[in-house]
Amino acid sequence: MLIFIGAGYSRRHLTQEALESLKSVEKIYVDTYTSIYEDGFNWLREVNPSAEIVFAKRRDLEGEGINRIVEEAKDGNIAILCAGDPFTATTHDAIRVEALKSNVSVKVVTGISVVNLVHSRIGLQAYRFGKIVTLVYPDSFKPYSVIETIYDNLGRNLHTLILLDLRLEEGLAMSIPEAIDILMELDEKQQLMNQISIGVARLGWSSEVIRAGRLIELKRYSYPPPPHSLIIAARLHPIELESLRYIAGLTITG
Ligand SMILES: C[S@@+](CC[C@H](N)C(=O)[O-])C[C@H]1O[C@@H](n2cnc3c(N)ncnc32)[C@H](O)[C@@H]1O
């Protein structure tokens, strides 16, 4: 059996189902490249002292790595453990499909994802979000499509969650100030800088920081190291506006 386990972002987020599943397997692949976990999974050995633990890089969970995992899951119980949720804003679908094609049983243990954290912790209503985007470093191409999506969402009066580039194997993790500089450079209309936005750093961690203000103003704050995300708000409902004042220190009145 192959079990995909979402761990949320801290040991505190582990569900009973995640704990039971972790205890039931003989090998655990820990996805170390799609996100960053508060305590680096340092509790894993305590939860399952006998399992083989592989801190997996991208190549272990893609391409040839997939075939190896599926072969192992034919004869044993294997887990793939991820920060957040294994199928939210991250794709492990190729492994799931290969396992299903090979008649390997698959189980998914849902975890608290960054999308859940954003929806529940900052005071914006979940059904007022449009398409999610990921802002990448503009090295090989300029990600103008992110700007198009933000304006498209704003045109429909929907908020945009912007996930920020993480290339952990290259030692790169985009911060909120870096993301604002990139957005300013790409935004030919130059309107986004005045849009009410929310910067979220380490959501769900004990060092969580949530700040709201005009996009350009969010550069002034200090944040703990990534993971960071940004939200560009559409027109705010009065309750959302009030929430942002109390939760995120928004001082703009509307
Ligand atoms: C590819 S997504 C991983 C999503 C993961 N599968 C999940 O369900 O949460 C990684 C991006 O989410 C954002 N992110 C992840 N954890 C975060 C956190 N605790 N606080 C703020 N942003 C976070 C960052 O922008 C990061 O680059």
UniProtKB/TrEMBL annotation:
The protein's Enzyme Commission number: 2.1.1.98
Pathway assigned to this chain's UniProt record: Protein modification; peptidyl-diphthamide biosynthesis
Q: GO biological process annotations for this chain's record?
A: methylation; protein histidyl modification to diphthamide
Q: Which part of the chain is the Tetrapyrrole methylase domain?
A: 1-218
One family from Pfam that matches here is TP_methylase
Q: Does the keyword Methyltransferase belong to this entry?
A: yes
- Molecular function via GO: diphthine synthase activity
Q: Which family does it belong to?
A: Belongs to the diphthine synthase family.
Q: Which HAMAP family match?
A: Diphthine_synth (MF_01084)
Q: Which PANTHER family match?
A: DIPHTHINE METHYL ESTER SYNTHASE (PTHR10882:SF0), DIPHTHINE SYNTHASE (PTHR10882)
Quaternary state and interactors: Homodimer.
| Protein name as it appears in the record | Diphthine synthase
Which organism does this sequence originate in? Desulfurococcus amylolyticus DSM 16532
Query: Which gene specifies this protein's sequence?
Result: dphB
